[in-house]
């Protein structure tokens, strides 16, 4: 991965995405395993939030503080609504003291426009950045920010994108260039208007920061792809976790569904006990809150069972029926999954063809080498075998190319099949299919590239040296064939002109 955001060539990103499609996604464990043995991972509830009971009775989020336009509700925190010039953020109330950590954040960025703004940021900083100009949080932070930047301020067509920016508390964020001059790592991902929530896993372990992304195309929660990595990164030993967002002239809804924090401990080291860190007052408050909630829940359960004795044990009405838009979305995803599989198959077949080509090239090379050494007695026999091999290989290649063509046709049929749903999801559909079109275009380009790459290598095998083959198609045979073709063609032309003349006579 290139370290500089500016160096990311715009057309490269879909290719990376495409390659990632064809390969199994990288899991968090795999990504960190390279460094050393897997760390001990412990969930830290004090630095986490998650639905369905995210907010307390008084409108606050347990262990977290929210600022600006952020609105917590039962199952998510809307950091900004899709109105102009909104800012909001959520921060942990206390500093974490973990040496290493991992956060899993689930969010949605949705907007009606093809372009949105400004974006969302995930933070680990020495102080809370409660308010400021950097995606709704303070500038000159000490720590790291992972920015999901929707709007392309510098016009380099590399947004939406993900960028990692470290700061020692002195640097001013270069907003006009989308932070490209300050990026430690980055990747280009479109995280807006995705069918499923986008998931990001940020791991800081043994001084390496890794960002993995599940970009919301599948319901598979573990389908993470590698995005960025920063090695030898020194972060404050204690800090706050936060998430912030902002809108500008253009505006998206920025919704965070969950923020889960895990403490990572190197094998053999002991993690500090969590209970010692909670003040008694807070403990009492949360216990009270929990008991109150539990009582409410029990009461409501009893009420519901009294009122609906017949629905006990049956699925809720919401689960049994799906809305029109849900159905459309489901159809689109099924179509997309099929395309995904087709592309995977295409990839496999391309690999097979390459393999065949390689075999063919090496066989020809071997043959030429043998001839160079000179065994005139065996020439006829060997070349016969050789030609048979070549013909077989060619037939195989043709068969596989046909298979590819049919799988591409299938993929196209899936696309047109999925395009049927009504008008409500048309915008998203069009956007997804534009993406797919782009990816198919890249597949085409790759194939052309492969062909170009293969052509000179076979030419290098010096086909002109082959004429000494006595049983190869001879010049005489070739000319006879051409002559027969020509005679047939002239005969046909004469026949047609006679027919036409006869027709004219008839009129
Ligand atoms: Ca930007
Ligand atoms: Ca940009």
Could you walk me through the main structural features you see in this protein, from its secondary elements to its overall organization?
Keywords: Disulfide bond, Lectin, Membrane, Signal, Transmembrane, Transmembrane helix. It comes from Taeniopygia guttata (Zebra finch). The chain crosses the membrane at residues 476-495. Pfam families: Lectin_leg-like. One of its GO terms (molecular function) is D-mannose binding. Helices cover 40% and strands 20% of the residues. Residues 1-35, 421-425 and 457-463 have low confidence and may be disordered. The protein starts with 11 loop residues before the first helix and ends with a helix. By secondary structure, it is of the alpha+beta class. The protein folds into two domains: 5-276, Jelly Rolls (Sandwich); 324-456 and 466-506, no CATH class. The protein contains eight helices and 16 strands. The chain has helices at 12-22, 28-33, 280-307, 317-320, 324-373, 379-418, 426-459, 475-506; strands spanning 40-43, 49-50, 64-68, 71-72, 77-80, 87-92, 100-110, 119-125, 142-149, 161-168, 183-187, 198-205, 208-214, 225-230, 240-246, 253-265. The strands form two sheets. Strands 1, 2, 4, 5, 7, 12, 13, 14 and 16 form a nine-stranded antiparallel beta sheet that branches. Strands 3-6-15-8-9-10-11 form a seven-stranded antiparallel beta sheet, with no helix packed on it. It binds calcium ion (CA) (2 copies).
């Amino acid at each position: 991965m290139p370290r500089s955001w500016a160096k990311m060539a715009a057309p490269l990103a879909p290719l990376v995405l495409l390659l990632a499609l064809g390969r199994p996604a990288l899991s968090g464990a795999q990504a960190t395993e390279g460094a050393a043995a897997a760390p001990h991972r412990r969930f830290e509830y004090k630095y986490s939030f998650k639905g369905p009971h995210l907010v307390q009775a008084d409108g606050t989020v347990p262990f977290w503080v929210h600022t600006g336009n952020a609105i917590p509700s039962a199952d998510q925190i809307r950091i900004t609504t899709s109105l102009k010039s909104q800012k909001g953020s959520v921060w942990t109330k206390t500093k974490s003291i973990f040496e290493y950590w991992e956060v899993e954040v689930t969010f949605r960025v949705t907007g009606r426009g093809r372009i949105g703004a400004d974006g969302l940021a995930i933070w680990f900083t020495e102080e809370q950045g409660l308010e400021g100009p950097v995606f709704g949080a303070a500038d000159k932070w000490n720590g790291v920010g992972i920015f999901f930047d929707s709007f392309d301020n510098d016009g380099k067509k590399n947004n939406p994108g993900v960028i990692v920016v470290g700061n020692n508390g002195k640097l001013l964020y270069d907003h006009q260039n989308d932070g490209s001059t300050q990026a430690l790592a980055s990747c280009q991902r479109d995280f807006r208007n995705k069918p499923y929530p986008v998931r990001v896993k940020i791991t800081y372990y043994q001084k390496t920061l890794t960002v993995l992304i599940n970009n919301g195309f599948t319901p598979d929660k573990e389908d993470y792809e590698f995005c960025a990595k920063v090695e030898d990164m020194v972060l404050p030993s204690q800090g706050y976790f936060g998430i912030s967002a902002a809108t500008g002239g253009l505006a998206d809804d920025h919704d965070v569904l969950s923020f889960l924090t895990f403490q990572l401990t190197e094998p053999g080291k002991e993690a500090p006990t969590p209970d010692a860190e909670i003040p008694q007052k807070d403990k009492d408050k949360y216990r009270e809150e929990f008991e109150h909630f539990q009582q409410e829940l029990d009461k409501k359960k009893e009420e519901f069972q009294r009122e609906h004795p017949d629905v006990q044990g049956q699925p809720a009405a919401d689960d049994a029926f799906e809305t029109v838009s849900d159905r459309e979305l489901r159809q689109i995803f099924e179509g997309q999954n099929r395309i995904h599989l087709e592309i995977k198959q295409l990839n496999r077949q391309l690999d097979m063809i390459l393999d065949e080509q390689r075999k063919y090239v090496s066989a020809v090379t071997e043959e030429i080498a043998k001839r160079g050494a000179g065994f005139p007695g065996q020439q006829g026999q060997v070349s016969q075998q050789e030609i048979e091999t070549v013909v077989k290989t060619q037939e195989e290649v043709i068969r596989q190319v046909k298979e590819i063509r049919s799988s591409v046709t299938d993929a196209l049929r899936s696309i047109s099949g999925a395009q049927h749903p009504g008008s409500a999801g048309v915008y998203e559909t069009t956007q997804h299919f534009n993406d797919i079109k782009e990816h198919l275009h890249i597949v085409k380009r790759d194939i052309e590239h492969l062909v170009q790459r293969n052509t000179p290598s076979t030419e290098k095998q010096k086909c002109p040296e082959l004429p000494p083959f006595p049983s190869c198609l001879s010049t005489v045979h070739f000319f006879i064939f051409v002559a027969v073709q020509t005679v047939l063609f002239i005969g046909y032309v004469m026949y047609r002109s006679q027919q036409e003349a006869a027709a004219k006579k008839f009129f």
